Amino acid sequence: MRVRGHAALTLLLLAPIGCSLDTAESVPSAYPSAGLYTPGSTLGASDPSDVPAEGAGLGNRCVALTPAASPGTTGTLTLEYETQSLLGRYAPRNCTAVWIENAQGQYVATLEIGAGLRRPGLVYFQDHACTEKPGPDAVTSATLPDHKKTHKAMWSGVDFAEQPVADGPYKLFIEVTESDKEPGELTEIAIDKTATPFAMDAPVDVEGPLLRVSLTWEVEPAGSPGTQDGS
Question: What is the tens place of the pLDDT at every residue in 7-28?
């Protein structure tokens, strides 16, 4: 699907595991009060069986991209999005993460992490990203108490090693979870980093975690600082 002639969009909404009320009978000792959202807790929150081993099935996520023959266009991608509760275990409290991969699935950089010490609950982010090197544009915050925040993150077109990346297709991921026991939901949006600016409102699933997603790619004018045109 083409959006305004510039950005291809693909949404991958994974099955809403862990995003409904936990109705199973629980053993109190299995869920200590120092859980995912207990302020000041330094204990790991997720069930270890729910968290994939680092880089499981995806290789080493901390390997830098091969330097681009040409860094291509200099610009800024701006993302804004809003979330809604899916009645997870700790709703409306929630954790979020946003990151970018290239077309081959190699980790590029992180744009946002809203989890603090509760990152183990972001199981897809833990598996897909280099968590030790989020990248120069990453914005971090603690776990959010509700879904009232309008998220805003930016990407300057560089990888986690602060090296400009080539023009071409990339994948932007948004993960939202309200649970420490089961994965939340992951949305994938295909974007194109090119010399052509674009603005798009991504369609969202009304039953999913995202209420609104908007993206803009702004290109720096030729001759401005940082422009890759040799001038």
Answer: 344 444 433 333 332 333 333 3
